[in-house]
Amino acid sequence: MLYRASCHCGAVVAEVDAPTELEVEDCNCSICYRSGILHLIVSKTRFRLLQGAEHLRLYTFNTGTAKHYFCQTCGIKVFYIPRSNPDGYSVNARCLEPPPAKLLVVPFDGRNWEQHAHLLAHKSQD
Questions:
Q1: Residues 67, 72, 76, 79: what is their CA dihedral angle, to the nearest 10 degrees?
Q2: What 8-state DSSP symbol labels residue 46?
Q3: pLDDT tens digits for 26-73?
Q4: 27 beta partners
Q5: How far is the CA of 63 from the CAs of 37, 77, 84, in angstroms?
Q6: Strand pairing partners for 10?
Q7: Domain definitions of the chain by residue range
Q8: Does domain 2-124 have CATH number 2.170.150.70?
């Protein structure tokens, strides 16, 4: 199924190819906990930025591997390139339209990232 994902103001719009029933991660690391993102991790082939590249700003920290993109106008993070899956994207499931028919939210212990990151590695593979 093709979902559209957009920020609050509509400046950034992407599409992602994913099942109608989704499994997403709810990470408790410092940035995910504060921003409330639900991670739909997909391969690069399943993601397309349709509009708004010029509205994106980049935030990095720690190793700089994760590329946190957010809309400069409304501040919403529609997607980013995760440290656990630098070969894919994490799309914020809270930004999807239409809303998924079924959403299984799985807790992920990102506070102890080094011990658990391997559990996500397969998510960006087709």
A1: -30
A2: G
A3: 999 999 999 999 999 999 999 999 999 999 999 999 999 999 999 999
A4: 108
A5: 20, 19, 12
A6: none
A7: 2-124
A8: yes
